Amino acid sequence: MEEDNRTEPWHRSLQAMLDALNQTLHGAILRPSTPHNASTRASRDDNSYLYILFVMTLFAATVGSLILGYTRSRKVDKRSDPYHVYIKNRVSMI
């Protein structure tokens, strides 16, 4: 029981420090400010994650279409390929 009493002030100061850090990380300023400032910032940043998601989706679609187009163009056998023309002529001779 005696050890609990010695750690109590340390625990309270640690908890106060963690609460202050938590408020700082969540955007709450330790000194009071006008609520107009906080509401303006919150309304401005409400849809920022949608914008980031939209830009990432466009980037992924662009890169995906480029990769898909490149790989499909490499797989298609072109009739004007000299090797295929030679094989076609060679087979018709036999």
TrEMBL record:
Pfam families documented for this protein: ISK_Channel (PF02060)
Membrane-traversing stretches: 49-70
Main location: membrane
UniProt superkingdom: Eukaryota
Location relative to the cell: Membrane
Molecular function in Gene Ontology: delayed rectifier potassium channel activity; potassium channel regulator activity; transmembrane transporter binding; voltage-gated potassium channel activity involved in ventricular cardiac muscle cell action potential repolarization
Any one GO BP annotation for this protein: regulation of heart rate by cardiac conduction
GO terms for cellular component: voltage-gated potassium channel complex
Bilayer disposition of the protein: Single-pass membrane protein
Family (UniProt): Belongs to the potassium channel KCNE family.
Protein name per Swiss-Prot or TrEMBL: Potassium voltage-gated channel subfamily E regulatory subunit 3
Organism: Phasianus colchicus
Gene coding for it: KCNE3
